[in-house]
TrEMBL record:
Gene name for this UniProt entry: Glipr2
PROSITE patterns xref list: CRISP_1
Annotated SCP domain residues: 63-209
PANTHER family named among the record's database cross-references: CYSTEINE-RICH SECRETORY PROTEIN-RELATED (PTHR10334)
Protein name: Golgi-associated plant pathogenesis-related protein 1
Pfam families: CAP
Length: 257
């Protein structure tokens, strides 16, 4: 409203307009200032809370990825393989594909490797778990890595070629693979919580060559002892509530040439 005539007094400001007038006293101005101040404070708190949640999410993500690469390195050391480093770009790609797997399969827990041209020069291990239990994830990254490694109990170190059904293990300990990307996605569907997990490796492992030269050079028995296989434990939340995907040789074990 445009005020044609304004008068001032100790009580405040008075606006005179043709046939009507209105007053804005000091109490009204003070109340306005309080409301504005309260609004700005709430807005700042919401922004601060959002930043805290964002930071916590980043820390949680960084923690599981750091733990994943440390777990890989502990297992690789048994087989005289050098340590891996975490590659953030590869991890982002793994995250995106884990989400894609949930969109494709959901609670049906299908697993299918991403197209090789979408991850050039990278190997890939996949895992999924679903549960009806009230837990945050259908499967942990730690459990997935352990399940890949536990294929060692069926691995023949005297055979220097790709061994069907055991490609997750040989990729995990492949000596030339020194960069790791790790991602996951958890979603809920039809009363179940499902987590898809994707690990990517560069250089790509499981490379077949004449005479098995690369398998001989990259997969070593090292200090591994078969007694490990006598103490395998299931880290799932309960057999009746936890389902591990069965592995299909065409989809989940990957040999590259």
């Amino acid at each position: 409203m445009v005020c044609p005539t304004i008068s001032y007094s100790q009580k405040g400001i008075k606006c005179h307009e043709s046939e009507q007038s209105f007053s804005i006293n000091r109490r009204t101005l003070e109340e306005r200032d309080r409301l504005v101040s309260r609004f700005l404070h709430k807005a700042e708190m919401k922004s601060f809370s959002a930043l805290i949640l964002l930071a916590l999410g980043y820390v949680v993500t960084a923690d599981y990825r750091r733990e994943a690469v440390e777990q890989h390195n502990r297992l690789r050391a048994i087989h005289d393989a050098p340590e891996m480093t975490l590659n953030n770009e590869m991890s982002e790609g793994a995250d995106q594909y884990a989400h894609r797997l949930f969109q494709m399969f959901g609670v049906n827990m299908g697993l299918k490797h991403s197209p090789k041209d979408s991850r050039r020069g990278q190997g890939e291990n996949l895992a999924v778990g679903c549960t009806t239990a009230r837990v945050a994830e259908g499967r942990s990254v730690e459990d997935a890595i352990k399940s890949w490694y536990d294929e060692v109990c069926r691995y023949n170190f005297n055979v220097h070629r790709f061994q069907s059904g055991l490609g997750h293990f040989s990729q995990l300990v492949w000596k030339d693979s020194t960069e790791l990307g790790i991602g996951k996605y958890t979603g809920k569907q039809r009363g179940k919580t499902c987590t898809y997990i994707v690990a990517r490796y560069r250089k790509v492992g499981n490379v077949e060559t004449p005479g098995g030269r690369l398998f001989r050079e990259n997969v070593s028995k090292g200090s591994f002892r078969r007694s490990y296989c006598n103490n395998l434990s299931d880290k799932s939340v309960g057999e009746a509530e936890y389902i591990s995907a069965s592995y299909d040789d065409d989809d989940d074990d990957e040999a590259s040439s």
